[in-house]
Amino acid sequence: MVAKISAAIFAFFLFTALLANFTSAQLHKISLPESDVDLLEFPLNLEYLEAEFFLWGSLGHGLDKEVPQLAEGGPTPIGGRKANLDPLINDVVLQFAYQEVGHLRAIKKTVKGFPRPQLDISAAHFAKIVDEAFEFKLNPPFDPYANGVNYLIASYIIPYVGLTGYVGASPKLQSAKAKRLVAGLLGVESAQDAVIRGLLYERAGQKVLPYNITVAEFTSRISNLRNKLGKRGVKDEGLVVPLAEGPEHKTHGNVIAGDVNSVAYDRTPAQILRIVYGTGNESIPGGFYPKGADGHIARYYRH
Fold first, then answer.
1. Long-range contact list for 104-107, CB < 8 A, 24+ apart?
2. Each residue of 66-95: pLDDT tens digit?
3. Closest C-alpha among 122, 143, 94, 113 to residue 47
4. CB–CB of 104/68 below 8 Å?
5. What's a Pfam family in this record (predicted)?
6. Each residue of 188-242: pLDDT tens digit?
7. Helix, strand, or coil (residue 238)
């Protein structure tokens, strides 16, 4: 009898010791449905990209100096550098950068995540995107870091894709915790996109030097390219659109993109990968992710 009691006590303390090895956050992570974990991990790819681009643009360095633990030893991004920004735009971009740091931390507190993937945020890569959007090579090549307008145009390329991904993921989530997190992330990503579009809309008729092409035309071309790569119809719109595509068909101005009812567009992970890889194929890495995105969903499409 004494032996049985001793064994029971030993088992209890062993269980308690094992349980102590798990933090409350880890226990919370493993309680999420597997599909929720996959859908929460996937946007880390976009959050890493935004954090690095905004940190480098505003501060001249990235996560490795600012919050190295969040990068988890992932490779240093290719081509990041300080942008030539006026004080207002630099301040806005700096706020975006720290918001993205918070997003990375929030997701990683909820799911295990993965180290920063290899990213290409070089001027040469942005120039390639813009050339593809216009279907001819700009001369000189577009440089996102050259000035504030160029940097805002380059910023137009990135956050909106993640925004549509959160919209697409939202109805597929099962747990209240995952839904709350995505709703909170979507709110801030949407606000960032609205600020970027608002600053660009203020300059919609301005010519981007030295190309003699307006800011509005840049946004339309970039949106058209993303629609083409995504291969699922119109889920992207520039700042100035035909009347038939404007809100209630009554305005050419399109400071915030939305469908026929001004509801935000959604995208699936496959559509997002087609766009950020720049290949139009979710199975062929490239673009911002030379070695591919990470997480279960992205790895699935590579096999």
1. 104/44, 104/47, 104/48, 104/51, 104/67, 104/70, 105/70, 106/181, 106/184, 106/185, 107/40, 107/41, 107/43, 107/44, 107/47, 107/181, 107/185
2. 999 999 999 999 999 999 999 999 999 999
3. 113
4. no
5. Ferritin_2
6. 999 999 999 999 999 999 999 999 999 999 999 999 999 999 998 899 999 999 9
7. coil
